[in-house]
Amino acid sequence: MLMTRRAIMAATAASAAAATLSAPSIAQAALPFKQPALPFKEDALAPHISAKTVGLHYGKHHKAYFDKLNTLAKGTPYADMELEEIVKASAGKTADKKIFNNAAQAWNHVVYWEQFTPGGPKRPEGTVAEELNASFGDYGKFIEKAVATSDEVFGTGWVWLTRDDQNKLALVGYEDGNNPVAVGRPAYLGVDIWEHAYYVDYENRKPEHIKVVLENLVNWRVVGDKITKA
């Protein structure tokens, strides 16, 4: 399933009155927005994601989103909002597209790094595993679906574990920095398919990168807590 820009704008209008979802626990609120520290050392994800990639991804790309957002939000109503509120309030507004892009990518990456926090199980457990299997069959098929969903996204974007219209767990592809939060849905797990997330280590082998991340790096206690508390 793919959420295009047009679909995002339509869904945003339809869900404007939706209740606020829980932001990542390490997200910052109000200007100046501060990039949270990594919950692990830069080499902690190796050999699956190299220290070089983490350094560039976190230290250059993610940092730039926060820096640009601070510049763009200064003197606007967004300066007093929490990061997730900015994503929701600016989604679908042409005049605020730059603010949305940087706020969404700043928020996306907070979730991204948090889900790799060391120490948790690498597979879903308990009721979360049961719900995931009910939606996808088993964990192997979940990974296959993630790869297939990434192919629906032309160019840059994300694959998010969220919920569909029937409230079942679903994998949805989003272009650029768009995410489920912008349309009033939960964002449990995000796979970054921008080239800066994988090209240093995997070159053009995006499917391999997705498989490696989902097989070896996701802390399912972090993700599972979001699912069970939603």
Characteristic key phrases:
230 residues, Helix Hairpins, minor pseudopilin epsh fold, 4-stranded mixed β-sheet, 4 strands, 47% helix, EC 1.15.1.1, Mn/Fe_SOD_N
What are the SSEs and their pairings?
Layout (H helix, E strand, L loop, with lengths): L1 E2 L1 H10 L36 H23 L9 H8 L6 H18 L11 H11 L2 H13 L5 E7 L5 E7 L13 E4 L6 H4 L3 H11 L3 H10 L1
Helix pairs in contact: 2-4, 3-4, 5-6, 6-8
InterPro entries: Mn/Fe_SOD, Mn/Fe_SOD_BS, Mn/Fe_SOD_C, Mn/Fe_SOD_N, Mn/Fe_SOD_N_sf, SOD_C_sf, TAT_signal
Organism: Agrobacterium rosae
Family: Belongs to the iron/manganese superoxide dismutase family.
Distance between the termini: 22 Å
Could you tell me the CATH topology label of the largest domain: minor pseudopilin epsh fold
CATH homology superfamily of the largest domain: Iron/manganese superoxide dismutase, C-terminal domain
The major sheet is characterized as: 4 strands, mixed
CATH class of the largest domain: Alpha Beta
* Count of distinct strands: 4
Number of helices: 9
Q: Strands of the largest sheet, in order across it?
A: 1-3-2-4
CATH architecture of the largest domain: 3-Layer(bab) Sandwich
Order of helices and strands: EHHHHHHEEEHHH
Please tell me the total number of domains. 2
